[in-house]
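It is worth pausing here to work through a concrete case rather than discussing structure prediction in the abstract. The textbook approach is simple: state the sequence, then state the predicted structure, then interpret. We follow exactly that order.
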Amino acid sequence: MIERQEVYLDKFNPAPALPYNLRREDFQLAMQDVYDFFYDMNRNLREKHLRRFEDMSRPAAISGMLSDMLTDALAKHSRSLVNNGYHNGHPDLLENGKYTNDRVASGEHGVEVKTTNKRGGAVDTHGARSQWMCVFVYKVDTTTEPADDRAPLRFTEVYLGYVEAEDFRHNARGELGTRTATLHAEGIAKLRQNWVYLDR
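Step two, the predicted structure:
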């Protein structure tokens, strides 16, 4: 049976330091938008005797989809942030009116949104930059049997902090790999200090 996941209000940090006029309610509504979408989608799939989206998709596809959905939802609910209209531009969310047509290839004013299924919020990025970084950690149940008893996708951690380029370590890759950067131990500790939501 497909269940609708709810956001637990008591799991929010009562006084997070949030930039760009963001509110805890913006995160609550954004996460609930995602939960409602997955509920509607998976209910329709199961009514047709098809597998849940989480069970038929690669983890990387789920992560990418969640990043896009959360970016859109935060832009919709926040008062001061909009989607970056530049394809693959950085950051994902821009301060409203700061850039021409709300588009920039590489900007400084806004929030980069990342998702990961790794507990603690460590996530690869395409480069080390000083930025406001928001990381949503999610959990997917792929083991409970029968599959109809599996718990819905759930966000377990949300962090939003300002990190510096020096807070990253560079990851070595082979000839065909894309070079990435990840927050080092001190950097990830810095990010975790400003937690928004914890439901471990």
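Step three, interpretation. The chain has a mean pLDDT of 93. The longest helix spans residues 24-47.
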